[in-house]
């Protein structure tokens, strides 16, 4: 936080106002994300009367908070790498700030609109659609065409994860419910809870639902919280490059970065082909800027963004060339590359805590609209105990696996699809009107968020001219 205050103190009044607005939008996105996606964790707990609504959302909010704190930062930068490379290289430019504001405003707007109508859509889809819209608009405005504005390789990985996860949710939840029917022949588990408000599910079912509610909430906090971290870091790098372009924690950051760059140069130089000539030249630049310095704080303010850009360009170039690098040499290159990357890919503790608080607080209000849709409008009957447990277990496991491999998935789509799968497996039927509305919203999320962010970005760029 000291770095933030020091760098903030150097800003003029106009830049300080822009920074305040940008951070408010970025943290506000996490608040909206919290109450928009809360239903995914608490619906089954509330509708099976495992917990009343207030303690359920407080419990979910606390678990979301913990999920952000414990989740790491891998996904944060997988999202960032979807953004246009030229804007990320020049992260301190006004265009880069316009980029971040455009995608955040577009994301918040679509989330609020769908929340108002009680339609569960994916915050991940919304955010990634907004990122792609900015990339396409930037490619057009720079005259390089649509293909140059987006990291299509990374977009393909993320898109595949978001496309497959709802199918996994539907099929796995249906299969789990059918397995439960076969091996746990308790009729009480497969009918809607009785009308008596004092009725409670069996203890072991309550324990399962509480555990899965907590697990889904923690997984959601870990997965979605990281997306907000990455965007907040772009805001800080863009407006406070002297304080956040490099990881200033520790007294030996420059020493460690220099050792990683030296090892990476040696690994690249071992290849006699001219493939890595440009990367080696950039590594020489990095080594020159780090020479004689132990801490990254010793790098002069005016050189920090240039050093960050050089490290980023080397990392992206090696990522692009992975397919043409021999498998035997990849390990020798990847290890020092990852170590060097830590000099620029990091999230300060206060940002992690701030995102955790916003997501946790957002979880505790605004949840009723989506909860009502998921519990009462997807199926023709209310959720049963077994349906709730099956959908939650599958959602928790799917999102947990996605966290491990570093891919963003949609909590909303996994759990909503899981509920629909259990309705089908339980012969409860699915309300076609609701299913149609949800499917239409899912299909529109990408194009609408892309168009909104592209329009805001273009207007912002034109206004800066």
Which short descriptors sum up this protein?
465 residues, mainly alpha, 20 helices, 74% helix, 0% strand
Describe it.
The protein is mainly α and about 475 residues long. The chain contains 20 helices and no strands. It has helices at about 1-10, 15-35, 40-45, 55-70, 75-80, 85-90, 95-115, 125-140, 150-185, 205-240, 240-245, 255-270, 275-290, 300-320, 325-340, 350-365, 370-375, 385-405, 410-425, 430-465. The mean pLDDT is about 80.
Fold topology:
Blueprint: H1 2-8, H2 13-37, H3 39-47, H4 53-70, H5 74-80, H6 85-89, H7 94-116, H8 123-141, H9 152-183, H10 203-239, H11 241-244, H12 253-269, H13 277-290, H14 301-320, H15 327-341, H16 349-363, H17 368-377, H18 385-405, H19 411-425, H20 432-464
Total of DSSP H or I helical runs spanning 4+ residues: 20
Supply the helix-strand structural class: mainly alpha
Sheet with the most strands? Answer: none
The amount of helix comes to over 70%
Radius of gyration: 24 Å
Mean pLDDT, all residues? 81
N-to-C terminal Cα separation, in Å?
A: 34 Å
Order of helix and strand elements from N to C terminus: HHHHHHHHHHHHHHHHHHHH
Low-confidence stretches: none
Overall morphology: elongated
Q: Would you count the extended β strands for me?
A: 0
Strand content: under 5%
């Amino acid at each position: 936080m000291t770095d933030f205050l020091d760098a903030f103190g150097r800003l003029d009044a106009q830049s300080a106002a822009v920074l305040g607005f940008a951070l408010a939008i970025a943290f506000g996105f996490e608040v909206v994300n919290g109450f928009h996606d809360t239903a995914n964790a608490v619906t089954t707990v509330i509708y099976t009367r495992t917990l009343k609504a207030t303690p359920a959302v407080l419990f979910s909010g606390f678990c979301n908070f913990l999920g952000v704190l414990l989740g790491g930062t891998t996904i944060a930068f997988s999202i960032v790498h979807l953004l246009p490379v030229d804007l990320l290289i020049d992260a301190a430019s006004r265009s880069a700030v316009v980029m971040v504001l455009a995608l955040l405003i577009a994301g918040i707007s679509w989330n609020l609109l769908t929340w108002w109508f009680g339609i569960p859509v994916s915050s991940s889809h919304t955010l990634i659609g907004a990122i792609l819209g900015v990339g396409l608009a930037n490619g057009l405005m720079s005259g390089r065409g649509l293909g140059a504005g987006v990291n299509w390789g990374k977009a393909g990985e993320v898109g595949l994860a978001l496309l497959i996860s709802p199918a996994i949710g539907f099929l796995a939840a249906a299969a789990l419910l059918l397995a439960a029917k076969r091996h746990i022949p308790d009729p009480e588990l497969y009918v809607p809870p009785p009308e008596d408000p004092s009725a409670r599910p069996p203890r072991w079912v309550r324990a399962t639902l509480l555990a899965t509610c907590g697990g889904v909430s923690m997984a959601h906090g870990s997965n979605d919280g990281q997306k907000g971290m990455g965007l907040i870091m772009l805001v800080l790098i863009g407006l406070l490059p002297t304080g956040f372009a490099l990881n200033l924690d520790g007294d030996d950051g420059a020493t460690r970065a220099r050792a990683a760059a030296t090892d990476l140069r040696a690994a690249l130089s071992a290849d006699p082909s001219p493939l890595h000539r440009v990367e080696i030249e950039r590594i020489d630049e990095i080594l020159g800027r780090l020479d004689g310095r132990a801490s990254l704080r010793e790098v002069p303010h005016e050189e920090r963004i240039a050093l960050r850009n050089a490290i980023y360009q080397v990392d992206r170039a090696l990522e692009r060339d992975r397919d043409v690098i021999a498998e035997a040499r990849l390990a020798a290159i990847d290890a020092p590359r990852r170590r060097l990357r830590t000099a620029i890919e990091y999230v300060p503790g206060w940002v992690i805590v701030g995102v955790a608080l916003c997501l946790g607080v957002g979880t505790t209000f605004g949840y009723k609209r989506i909860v009502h849709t998921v519990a009462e409008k997807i199926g023709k009957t209310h959720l049963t105990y077994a349906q709730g447990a099956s959908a939650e277990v599958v959602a928790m496991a799917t999102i947990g696996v996605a966290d491990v491999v570093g891919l963003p998935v949609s909590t909303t789509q996994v759990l909503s699809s899981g509920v629909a799968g259990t309705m089908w497996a339980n012969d409860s039927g699915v309300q076609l009107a609701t299913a149609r509305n949800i499917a239409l919203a899912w299909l529109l999320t990408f194009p609408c968020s892309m168009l909104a962010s592209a329009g805001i970005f273009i207007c912002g760029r034109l206004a800066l001219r």
